[in-house]
Amino acid sequence: MTLVPSAEYLVRVRLGIAYDGTGFSGWAKQPALRTVQGVLEEALDTIYHRHGPAPTLVVAGRTDAGVHATGQVAHLDLTLAQAARLAPEALARRINGVLGSTSDVVVTSSARADPHFDARFSATWRRYEYRLADASTERNPLERTFTAAYAGSLDAALMHAAAQSLLGLRDFASFCKPREGATTIRSLQSFTWQRDDEGVLVSRLQADAFCHSMVRALVGACVGVGEGRFDTSELVSLSDALERTSAFKVMPARGLILREVGYPEASGFADRALQTRAKRT
């Protein structure tokens, strides 16, 4: 997909998306597997199949299997014929009609976007939330699909202190599954832990971007501190080693939710996309 729609693709559309990730094998379309992208692009094909090839989606965060979202963002490009078929502002309602009223994925908004807007590369930050019920929390079966469980008791204050020790611009290789040619340098802008009114441990993390499995590994590292397996200074040493370790676990996907994606003003879309592409390659 080009950064700016070509003469043949003149209408860029931004979508807001929410989904329960339990029944999906992640975001990205994969043969013979049910994915969020696959389900949405099938709906788009139903809507536009008489008006040329179905649009494809570019997404802000390619979530893993079982990860949820309330604030996912994607974009697609329409031909003039497709745009004439249905106004961009009406596309969310039409997709949801195709998916049905009990669908586990919902398009929350649709609007015509600036041609320089890129859902993935124009983003300046992503914000995730992780929910964890430990032994001190009364379990709520209605929340089991989006709250991970932990059998022991955890110290929220120690976990918060551990999270604070990892803030800033650094190499997060110790927390990322390596991908050839991709950098693991990220800016972790905020990382907190606290208990909600029901006693569930809730972590909120924001970064310019997260590499593969990074959020769940960061959460697992804080759990290691919260259960007393190692302290914050040891965690910093593990981080500085810049290699994957068995000292902490990658936590289950079901506790993770993509809450929000941030973007600059429209005048900054193109520059931000170029900067991000340069950093990621």
From TrEMBL:
Entry keyword set: Isomerase, tRNA processing
Catalytic reaction equation(s): uridine(38/39/40) in tRNA = pseudouridine(38/39/40) in tRNA
Superkingdom to which the source organism belongs: Bacteria
Record-linked Pfam families: PseudoU_synth_1
UniProt-listed Enzyme Commission number(s): 5.4.99.12
One record GO biological process: tRNA pseudouridine synthesis
Subunit note: Homodimer.
NCBIfam families for this protein: hisT_truA
Family indicated by similarity: Belongs to the tRNA pseudouridine synthase TruA family.
PANTHER family registered for this protein in UniProt: PSEUDOURIDYLATE SYNTHASE (PTHR11142), TRNA PSEUDOURIDINE SYNTHASE-LIKE 1 (PTHR11142:SF0)
Role of this protein: Formation of pseudouridine at positions 38, 39 and 40 in the anticodon stem and loop of transfer RNAs.
The name this protein goes by in its record: tRNA pseudouridine synthase A
UniProt lineage: Bacteria, Bacillati, Actinomycetota, Actinomycetes, Micrococcales
Gene behind this protein: truA
